[in-house]
Amino acid sequence: MAKLVKPGFKKPADNDKFELRINEEIRVPQVRLVGDNVTEGVYATSEALKMAEAQEMDLVEIAANAAPPVCRIVDYNKYLYEKKRKEKEIKAKTQKTVVKDIRFTPNTDDHDFEFKAKHAERFLTEGDKVKAYVQFKGRAIMFKERGELLLLKFAQRLEEFGILERMPQLEGKSMFIFLSPKKKK
Q1: pTM value?
Q2: Cβ-count burial 71-106 (b if 16+ within 10 Å, e if not)
Q3: Which of 5, 10, 146, 170 could be cross-linked to 106 through a Cys-Cys bond (beta carbons 3.0 to 4.6 Å apart)?
């Protein structure tokens, strides 16, 4: 019995995404057929292959771990196309999280603070996370309290746009906070 897969189609051997077995690759005595164009039930594999050949389609194993394995009679190329399209749609719908950095020093001036706060407002309204950090250089590490107060003031200034994920945390020579955007209602 010849495979019904269209000429020119090459089934990738080393790609894990194509683990489906088709036609003669299915080597179990019985399969469960499901789908629109067949009567659902358990059939002998040879009988299922004959049904697929009669419809000029392929027998595709869609659930190999079931007992007996679940198969569907479909055009294999069309099935792969639909599967890829659904995966692409799902990937497009997932939202990518972008983290924007805003850097301060312990002696940041009020004007600079407001300027950076306005940028952070814009980032949060666009749906991006904001990482604000105070960079301590040299002996400025002695002014940890100033850095913490600056970050808390920053979080308070942006509380209507974003939510503080955790309190200021010192790591090495920088203290940082994360702000995530508020959910839109």
Answers
A1: 0.51
A2: bbbbbbeebbeeeeeeeeeeeeeeeeeeebebebbb
A3: 146
